[in-house]
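Entry:
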Amino acid sequence: MRGIKQTAGRDRLGQFAPDFAQLNDDVLFGQIWADESLDLKTRSTIVICVFMGRGLVDDSLRYHLETAKKNGITREEISAIITQAAFYAGWPVAWAVFSMAQDVWSDADQPNS
């Protein structure tokens, strides 16, 4: 099992909502993301599509776009993912996600980066 060390929950909500923080850090990122039934690229694709479908275009989506890039999703792939999801999640949402994705993949000189 691959482990992801996440502390965002405890860092931001540890004092205010310790149970939620623990579930975020240890269960969601520690267990669910570590489950090897799906590879990390697939998990990232799912999260991005769910966020788009819910219209959640905020810093948490940016975090997941950055994670997707680290997980091997290329600029060409993210473009295709956002375009596919646009027809289900909405065109304006796709525009917003493309804006974030351009920032995240801005240092990529190659179309496959």
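The two ends are 27 Å apart (CA to CA).
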